[in-house]
Design a protein that fits this description.
alpha/beta, 11 strands, 37% helix
């Protein structure tokens, strides 16, 4: 299968920007799909036109809050619309980003991603999924969500990964002539080492003038599962740098 023209859903988002960069650098023709470019994968506005002549879709569109019900509805609609419009346009496949541990999640945003995976994989188009660890960029988001000069961040294990690393791995998967066979584990990508979310946040807090206090995370969905390592990469995962500290040093 010779893929030359990609449509990227969520192209202007945190991960999508990097996916567009990687595809462009590798010489592929890219159609950026987001509401900012006049394509709405939920209402379907502009979708059929955007997919004209497209060989493959990379779906990194995401919901903006952690509310499980709203996120599930977003992913349910986006999966259906991408499959329907993609099939009508003659698209060959969809490659989508998910989250490590989605298969174990019982609540919150990650549980919505579990439903998203199931809906994507139910067809009709062939789908490849890459599960990623939490992004380095997520740490800043955790601090943004809290007001004041003290932030309470869960001291839960994570293996933070750079968005750019995820984008490169996602494009590799989309272009791989040998798709993961049925029954094979879903591919995973994570950062080079295990860290705790609160320790990473403390490094960023120093830069922002925010005191970060590690807490047990009991208010978070599936905190018990997270504490036991349910959202850490499995033995078959690709591990790639930079570490959070190395990445932070490169940020303006």
């Amino acid at each position: 299968m010779n893929i030359t023209k990609f449509a990227v859903a969520g192209a202007t988002g945190r991960l999508g920007r990097h996916v567009v960069d990687v595809l462009t650098e590798r010489g592929h023709h890219v159609v950026s799909m987001s509401r900012a470019t006049g394509v709405d994968i939920i209402t379907g506005e502009g979708l059929a036109e955007a997919l004209t002549g497209v060989d493959a879709i990379i779906d990194v569109a995401s919901w903006h809050s952690s509310d499980q019900e709203a996120a599930t509805e977003f992913f349910r609609t986006s999966a259906r619309n991408l499959h329907e419009a993609g099939q009508q346009a003659g698209v060959d496949q969809i490659t989508a980003a998910s989250i490590i541990g989605a298969d174990k999640a019982t609540a919150g945003f990650v549980a919505a991603k579990k439903v998203h995976e199931e809906l994507l994989l139910s067809g009709p188009l062939p789908v490849r999924i890459l599960r990623a660890a939490q992004f380095h960029e997520f740490v800043g988001q955790l601090l943004d969500w809290q007001q004041g000069d003290v932030a309470y961040v869960p001291a839960l294990p994570t293996q933070l990964v750079a968005c750019r690393t995820v984008a490169e791995t996602l494009v590799d998967l989309a272009l791989d002539p040998d798709a993961p066979a049925p029954g094979q584990p879903i591919p995973e990508v994570a950062g080079p080492r295990e860290e705790t979310m609160s320790e990473a946040a403390q490094l960023l807090g120093v830069r922002r003038g925010v005191k970060v206090v590690g807490v047990d995370g009991s208010g978070m969905p599936d905190a018990g599962l997270a504490a036991k390592g349910a959202f850490l990469p499995g033995p078959h995962a690709k591990l790639a740098g930079p570490t959070f500290e190395q990445w932070l040093a490169t940020q303006p």
